[in-house]
Amino acid sequence: MRSSSLWRRALGAVVLFCGSAVSALAANHHPVVLVHGFAGFGPTEMLGYKYWGGLTNLESQLQSRYSDQLVRTAVVGPFSSNWDRAVELFYQIKGGCVDYGMLHANDAGHLRKPEDTYHNGRTCYPGLYRDWDANHPVHLVSHSMGGQTARMLVQMLAANGAPANPGLFPYSVNASWVKSVTTIATPNDGTTLAYRIVDWVPVVQQLVTGIAGVANATGANKIYDFKMDQWRIGPQTSSETFSQYMNRVMGSPLWSSGIKDLSPYDLSPAGAMAENDWVKDQPNVYYFSWSTNSSYTGLLTGWSYPNLDTNLLIGAFAGPGFMGNYYHDSRPFPPVSDSSWFPSDAVVNTVAQKAPTWAMNGAGQVYARPVTVRDISRGGTPQAGAWNWKGLMGGYDHFDIIGWTLFFDSVGWYKAHVDQLRSL
Known about the structure:
Helix content is 29%, strand content 13%. By secondary structure, the protein is α/β, with parallel strands linked by helices. The chain has one domain: 3-Layer(aba) Sandwich (Rossmann fold), CATH 3.40.50.1820. The protein has twelve helices and 13 strands.
């Protein structure tokens, strides 16, 4: 099992490296902004262990390769909704203090402008790229939930928050502010893991403490920032240990409130399909996607089981009891065979990653979303307005694909893709 997986990874790295070596001269030098997913963290957290690259600093590696192009990492709420994350992403790139919009904040029941309450500068940003506008667009390269966030930001720019919150941004925005969106292992149609997990509190605790253990940060005082200021959940104080801080956050009634303005709902098939109803594919934006799978099908059961080298923090999620044999119930789900959703990368069902193909309207009706999917896994010219699928990364789990493994040349892989973005 493991030798086969390693062979696939080595072969993939060689192909991608060769593709990078023959890339054409850059047609654009638009900045690349990396957008993390669920439970993600910033470069200064986890004692320097990187979300993008693990023991390798992917951002700095890419920046050293492309001296004529800005490469930056965004840090948004790890457990916030895609709306809140997309607004935070906007202000992180452009600069300014976060404003979630009056209509949205009132509907969600959280602060509209956290800075007006705290006056601590935590939700105000100098701007990763202050020149950002339609004439100076960016490429958004995203992992996991970050792909949903990036797509939503493009839609927000296209209509300036309408219809949910017209006039959201204080600029004359449009979809041309973004040149491309790349989604890697993204639950574009949701993940059934969100339906299998009844209580997210222990899962969040396990992920955060587990990642901290990988980063050897268990004994450190400040390890992780939950970034939930809009919910009046403040950051770790100087008098709190990290354990006390985590217990305070996890002890909030917010987690059991049933509020939909949080990541667990947006990650579910219901939440993802509801977003897919109003988040459209913009005709002048290039959409790219990669799928990952770290499971195999049992000969007797037909269920999916985790590959032996799947990360231990998430390995069980690929098997029976979680996504490996999920059968739909009364909750919203695409009208397809349940077994087609069994394979996964231990966090997201593989079938849900290619493109946003299903949607659900306000009346709760699920329908096939109009979308153009082009398979360019073996080459081909990307098309704006379409989903350009780069292929399946078989044998890669949800963390492998961002470099949390010694058996994958993540730097070469991402460089090859940036080369393609530069050619658009």
